[in-house]
Specification:
This protein has 19 helices and 13 strands. By secondary structure, it is of the alpha+beta class. A hairpin with a 2-residue loop joins strand 7 and strand 8. Helix 10 crosses helix 11.
Length: 712
């Protein structure tokens, strides 16, 4: 009986071997002993891909062993060879840290993504070799596009999220954009495989073979990035005005190959900006393709400050870049090789972690005499750290409200904590010390010392409008001729006109409204000692005085303050010149030019008619002797001829036409302007002729009112 059973088992075994070795298209070749040919473990891939089901006859439907007891997914390998399962790792292979890094790299001189294809198929959507059996559940085909995958780990079935739309993480696949994964460290040998979905910047979900002869590369325009990965620009990207300005901006939250911020530069140029597999260009190269770079650092050499005479400046670098700067400058270092900042380090420009202390300013900076002088020199410099926005153009109205580290422990403040809201000016009543104690009665916005500020056109226009006319600004107009009552300067700005006084009135004033009222300025300006010398009559009220400022501010006060300089060169004989704003108008008294007589209101046009006796009497009075009472008092001839017979009617003998030639040319001196005899006779006078040599005149006696020809 035993022999019969033994014979039966041998027959079954023979049939089994015969079945496994039969010649058909669905079974692999086996030798007489039921073994695969030599080197089959290397060559079986092609056979499997031709007839995927043939292996299941011996290795089981799940390829987990079957009658051969050899699993295609053996974790221990077979005959010294590794089989198909992924390695057992911590974290598990399903974690992107493991399989993602392998896919982006190169394995056995083969691009990582190509290696994935052996089991997951040409389209990464799975194949028989990637089928997975989970204990107690049906087999599932593992696609790199699976939204989720159920796998067993340590006997526990778990769900693993995969990539639903692509065989890699969803866009933006960049750590610089805030994602956990990045493609910037992918080995470039994978580029031809990337091109199957991304050729010509495409976003395909099914790979398409790359046309023959195509040479895809990351930076030649065939995939996503153009040459060098930077935008074409004028000047070119190699110019510091392009890449330098972009690097200093706030880091982008969306990223991009030319996105701003030093952190974004690291994506291609490496953590230390010394080049990487993506970009072999180091930002610290002395030269790159003939373009001079930064030989010792990824930025211009020290001192990187325009205030120190450099052409470059770091003070307008957004402080969010501080974490990258710390790689070389932590604890005020000057490293040439980047060192990662220790985890948990709080890096900031003004907390002593880098270069600057708590405020970045010297001790005592809170005193206006310190920071005020610096702020006045160029307010746009303060704006970079203290204002929102930190950089902006004319009319952008920045608010100086950025919270700052306290100058006094426990206090949080901004510029507007001390200064008025919407301004970075001093509060009211801050005047130069030379003004002494002042009254607030006439004060409005007395930021008097702004006249010494620097960079007017750029600094002041931030808040006072692009043209300093108040348009679109939070500050009032500095210059607005259409509405002079609302602005300080009327005809122009002091720095744009010459002389500066013409920003409000002519030199001398030539208009009809205050403060450019002509009055009699034109006539007076012709006199020596008064021409272009406003202080002769407006002593102490020039553009550098508080009085001038108070009268110039809206609402303006009229008339302008007037005081004669001391010593005054035009005092009348034996008297002191004076000015009065009377009910009838402004008049001067005791002025030598006017013969000491009170003047007519000098805003009245034509108040002195020099062609009439009354006009002459406006300045001349009859005298009793030469120079008495004034140098221009008329006294001449024997027997006081003029006084006794002619009186004050000068025009009876003096021709006003001849008089006009010289009469007003030297009024500033007591000397006679030309010989008076040259003006006697002719015209509308009562003298037919006059001979200066003999002092003889021939009167016109047509009305019998005068004498015969006489020498007097």
């Amino acid at each position: 009986m035993y022999e019969r059973v033994k014979l039966f088992m041998l027959i079954c075994l023979a049939f089994t071997l015969w079945g496994c070795s039969s010649s058909n298209n669905s079974a692999p070749a086996l030798d007489a002993s039921g073994r695969h040919p030599a080197n089959w473990i290397v060559d079986h891939q092609a056979s499997f891909e031709s007839f995927p089901n043939q292996c299941s006859e011996c290795h089981g439907a799940d390829l987990g062993g079957g009658t051969s007891k050899v699993s295609c997914f053996s974790t221990a390998g077979f005959l010294g060879f590794s089989c198909h399962p992924h390695p057992l790792t911590v974290p598990p292979w399903s974690d992107p840290v493991n399989h993602g890094a392998e896919a982006k790299g190169v394995e056995d001189d083969e691009p990582g993504f190509e290696h994935c294809r052996h089991c997951h198929g040409e389209d990464y959507r799975g194949s028989a070799l990637s089928d997975l059996a989970t204990a107690g559940e049906a087999r599932q085909r593992v696609s790199c596009f699976s939204a989720s995958l159920r796998i067993a780990s340590n006997g526990t079935v778990t769900n693993v999220a995969c990539h639903p739309t692509s065989p890699h993480p969803a866009a933006p696949w960049r750590a610089s954009a805030g994602t956990a994964t990045t493609h910037t460290d992918t080995d470039l040998q994978n580029v031809p495989l990337c091109a199957e979905c991304h050729l010509n910047n495409q976003r395909l979900t099914e790979p398409v073979p790359v046309p023959a002869g195509t040479a895809p590369a990351c930076f030649n325009g065939t995939l996503c990035h153009a040459e060098a990965g930077h935008p074409a620009s004028t000047p070119p990207w190699s110019d510091p005005s392009q890449h330098g300005a972009t690097a200093k901006l706030a880091p982008s939250t969306t990223g991009g190959i030319s996105a701003p911020g030093f952190g974004n530069c690291q994506a291609c140029h490496g953590e230390g900006l010394a080049g990487s597999t993506i970009s072999q260009v180091s930002c610290s190269s002395a030269t790159n393709d003939g373009v001079a770079c930064h030989p010792t650092s990824p930025h211009p050499p020290a001192p990187w400050r325009t205030s120190a005479g450099s052409a470059r400046n770091h003070t307008d670098t957004d402080q969010l870049n501080a974490a990258v700067c710390a790689g070389c400058h932590l604890q005020n270092q000057r490293l040439t090789t980047f060192v990662p900042v220790p985890a948990g380090t709080a890096v900031d420009c003004f907390n002593n972690s880098l270069c600057h202390g708590v405020t970045g300013h010297p001790a005592g900076w809170a005193n206006p005499s310190q920071h005020g002088a610096a702020g006045k020199s160029d307010l746009t410099f303060c704006q970079r750290c203290h204002a929102q926005p930190g950089t902006s153009g004319p009319g952008s109205n920045p608010r100086f409200t950025v919270p700052l580290v306290s100058l006094t422990a426990g206090i949080t403040f901004s510029c507007e904590t001390c200064h008025r809201p919407l301004t970075a000016h001093p509060p009211a009543l801050q005047f130069p010390a030379q003004f002494g104690a002042i009254s607030s009665a006439k004060l409005n916005r007395p930021w008097f010392t702004h006249k010494t500020a620097g960079n007017f056109q750029n600094a002041c226009s931030l808040c006072h409008g692009a043209n300093l006319d108040g348009a679109g600004g939070v500050g009032p107009a500095c210059f607005n001729p259409a509405n002079s009552a609302a602005s300080c300067h009327i005809t122009g700005l002091p720095f744009s006109v010459s002389p500066a006084c013409t920003s409000c009135h002519g030199n001398p004033p030539v208009g009809t409204t205050y403060p450019n009222r002509e009055g009699a300025h034109g006539e007076h300006n012709l006199l020596a000692g008064i021409t272009a010398a406003c202080g002769t009559c407006h002593s102490g009220f020039g553009t550098g005085t508080l009085a001038h400022f108070n009268d110039a501010r809206p609402p303006r006060q009229a008339p302008a303050d007037l005081a004669f300089v001391s010593p005054f060169p035009f005092n009348a004989s034996g008297a002191t010149a004076s000015f009065a704003d009377t009910v009838n108008g402004m008049v001067c008294s005791n002025i030598s030019c006017h013969g000491g007589i009170q003047t007519p209101p000098w805003r009245v046009e034509g108040a002195i008619n020099v062609d009439s006796p009354a006009g002459c009497a406006s300045c001349h009075q009859l005298g009793t002797a030469p120079g008495t009472p004034q140098a221009n008092s008329n006294f001449s001839g024997p027997g006081r001829h003029h006084n006794d017979f002619i009186g004050s009617d000068c025009t009876l003998c003096h021709d006003t036409v001849k008089l006009a030639v010289n009469h007003f040319t030297t009024l500033a001196t007591p000397a006679l302007e030309g010989p008076a005899s040259a003006t006697i006779g002719g015209g509308a006078t009562r003298v037919t002729s006059y001979t200066p040599g003999t002092r003889s005149c021939t009167p016109n006696n047509s009305d019998g009112a005068c004498h015969e020809t006489r020498t007097w």
